[in-house]
Amino acid sequence: MIAATITIDTEADHRGDAWVKTAPLRFESVTEGVRHAMAPLFAKHRARPTYLVTTEVMNDEASVEALARSADCELGTHLHGDHVAPAARAPDPAGQTSWDFTCCYPAEVERAKLETITAQFRDRFGRAPQSYRAGRYGASGRTARYLADLGYRVETSVTPGIEWVNEIDSTHRLDFRHAPLVPYRPSVTDLASEGNLPIWEVPVTILEHPALWNHGFHLAQRALGKPVQSYPLWLRPSTTSRAWLWWMVREVMRRPGPKLFNIMFHSMEVVAGASPYNPNGAATARILRRLDYLLGLLTAHGATFYTLGELAEALDR
Q1: Which of 182, 197, 213, 274 is the most buried (most CB within 10 A)?
Q2: Please, are residues 90 and 82 in contact by the beta-carbon 8 Å criterion?
Q3: In 10 A of CB 279, how many CB atoms?
């Protein structure tokens, strides 16, 4: 099996200089970016993306209309718990940064927030969501169990090889360092481990740089008196060059067993001035060229494109 899926965190526009939502909220990346920037590329490559939608997007009538009219895609939910009842820390997202790891809330609070955003999705789109990603990747095995109870088929918050430490509370950690790179049934005690929950975990495609490259990079860091640390490669057209995208696809294809390519980015990354990854029009063109290149490269390697729900169905066969 060679499977490719495109998972897009679909949020309000952010400032071009920081991960801070605009005030007042803007939604150009949804009302214009989805239809005019992304849809033509996906149609060209016969790729059907999954848009994972936040509460503020579902509260915007024009955004809901644009997404509901989008063909050849799937819609799911994307929970930033800071802005969702109950006990929302910042109920108005305008001008806010989303800090929280939702899985670090008390159990009853996390479950209630998941119920809230799931009910909101049903109300806005007239059907149940199948797919979910936590804001800031803040999901756990407990999260996956709640999602399964609510009828979800796919969870896609795991970022293999990475441990996240919350900037506000360092006791809140997400350890995905040893997670598989291919879809699996997660454990209720550890989202990054295989278990028997009736939901699929579809991890984001993230790889370490080659050992020789890391060695040279670490030597340079030491020479400059900087902390020695590694930065993994994401299958993400906004942050990864064409050369490294090519290397990542080749590396996954060389590994034994089934192949998964989970391309992840944010909707606002394809709109000028709507995220720090895209401060101007030149960045827009570059990101879209990389996305076009990556989709063509995957097609050339024989990958089949799935939405997350379609991938779960294929895995269930």
Answers
A1: 274
A2: yes
A3: 15
> Which residue segment(s) compose the domain that 209 sits in?
2-316
pLDDT tens digits along 223-249: 888 887 778 999 999 999 999 999 999
Q: What is the CATH number of the domain that holds 116?
A: 3.20.20.510
How many independent structural domains does the chain possess? 1
Q: 56 and 12 in contact (C-beta within 8 Å)?
A: yes
Beta bridge partners of 221: none
pTM score, whole prediction: 0.97
For residue 25, give both structure tokens: 């909220």
Contact indicator for 143, 103 with CB cutoff of 8 Å? yes
Per cent of the chain over pLDDT 70 is 100
Which one-letter amino acid corresponds to residue 134? A
**Alpha helix (H) residue ranges in the chain:** 28, 39-44, 55-58, 61-68, 107-125, 141-149, 211-223, 242-254, 281-300, 308-316
Q: What angle do CA 265, 95, 233 make, to 5 degrees?
A: 25
Given a contact cutoff of 8 angstroms between Cβ atoms, the answer to whether 229 and 182 are in contact is no
Q: How many CB atoms lie within 10 A of CB 100?
A: 25
Spell out a b/e string for 157-172, using b for 16 or more CB atoms within 10 Å of the CB, else e: bbbbbbeeebeeeeeb
Q: How confident is the model at residue 71 (pLDDT cuts 50, 70, 90)?
A: confident
